Amino acid sequence: MVIMTLVAGLAVPSFVGSLREERLRTAGRVLVATTQLARGRAVSEAAPTRMEFDTRANRISVSRLPDPTVEDPQWEAMTDNLAEPKKLPEGTSISYVGANPAQGFSQSANYVEFYPDGSAQAAYVVLSGYQSAVVVMRIEELRFSPRVLNITDAKDLSSLAALQ
């Protein structure tokens, strides 16, 4: 019985670490899927769409501009099953949205726009997990699929300047 308790005690930290890593990977998958949805909707509906980031509520949502020709256009949330707001897993957060996270997180935006021709506002999105673990995704102007970059630690974000 004592041996089983010791073995279980040794396995718990490993399990907790794996759970934290899986939550960050899940957040990354949510981000990729939402990016593909927003870009696809912009093309299929021939209307600009936005992927919006609520850093306080830790949510990603999609909205569209139904009529960009009106004088004061209003963005409206997409609420169908696929486009409903997605909450990121516990222990993960949206750290940065913008043109260059290597310059610091203080100039973060709260959305990325996608256009009817399939192009997008170029941006990086950084999701953070436990300690300094991160997932970095680059949304390119003309590439239909987002790229998840091979950066797993926040201290490596300075290397993004070399990728541009």
Summary keywords:
164 residues, 4-stranded antiparallel beta sheet, alpha+beta, minor pseudopilin epsh fold, 5-stranded antiparallel beta sheet, globular, 1 helix, 26% helix
What does this protein structure show overall?
With about 160 residues, the protein is α+β, with helices and mostly antiparallel strands. It has a single domain (about 1-164), classed as minor pseudopilin epsh domain (minor pseudopilin epsh fold). It has 1 helix and 9 strands. It has one helix at about 1-45, and strands spanning about 50-55, 60-65, 75, 85, 95-100, 110-115, 125-130, 135-140, 145-150. Strands 1, 2, 3, 4 and 6 form a 5-stranded antiparallel sheet that branches. Strands 5-7-8-9 form a 4-stranded antiparallel sheet, covered by helices on one side. It is globular, with a radius of gyration of 18 Å.
Reconstruct the topology from this structure.
Layout (H helix, E strand, L loop, with lengths): L1 H43 L4 E6 L4 E6 L11 E2 L8 E2 L5 E6 L12 E4 L8 E6 L5 E6 L7 E3 L15
Antiparallel strand pairs: 1-2, 1-6, 2-3, 2-4, 5-7, 7-8, 8-9
Characterize the overall form: globular
SS content category: alpha+beta
CATH structural fold name: minor pseudopilin epsh fold
What portion of the residues fall into strands of 2 or more residues? 25-35%
Question: Which CATH architecture is right?
Answer: 3-Layer(bab) Sandwich
